[in-house]
Hints:
By secondary structure, this protein is an alpha/beta fold.
Amino acid sequence: MKISVAQTKPIKGNISANIDTHKKLIKLAISYKTDSIFFPELSVTGYEPKLAQDLVTNQDDPKFDDFQEISDTNKITIGLGVPTKTNSGIQISMIIFQPDRPRQTYAKQQLHADEFPYFSNGEKQIILTVDNINIAPAICYESLQTNHADNANKLGAEIYLASVAKSKNGIDKAMAHYAAVAKKFAMPVLMSNCVGYCDNFESVGKSSVWTKQGNLVAQLDDRLEGIIIFDTETEEIIKQTL
């Protein structure tokens, strides 16, 4: 299977422009016959907790119909980040589009303290199956908590997918942690980060891939939008920027 992570530079609150960027990166991934592509935390709106109440949406929003059509036509799984409204409040979510299947939403289960005023916790881990391989999505803060990867492993995850919005300090911590997760559970770890200003910090990119041995085999820079494609069978890497 070819799985890819995208690195974006979201425009604060500009859903239309950010969707256009998503489509460009998905088109790039499709040109390499990629089976799946995943985007950073809150990629469609930008990581902007203070704006979440105004930008909130859900998986059935018609503005996302194009992504379902792209998924169906090109047989590609797409995971993008949005704030979603639930009965318990606004959640930091990943909407997942899979070919000819109902849409799914995974919501961040473990929030950072700074997020409590704006968001509520998700309640359940989901495991995605792409080409008979099980993928566990994790969203930013929770992906650095050891119990999250432990639980994903117990649920049968074969790939750990971290969708994040991280500063330099956060990335420095993440690099060591994700390598350890990959090695401990013998499963590749992929991290999708954004670049540019988010909320009150600068996100520094460096979207990365670690093999099941815990080796860092690919990384984007801290400036450009692009994708990394990882072949789970051959461990071959393709990197492309916009």
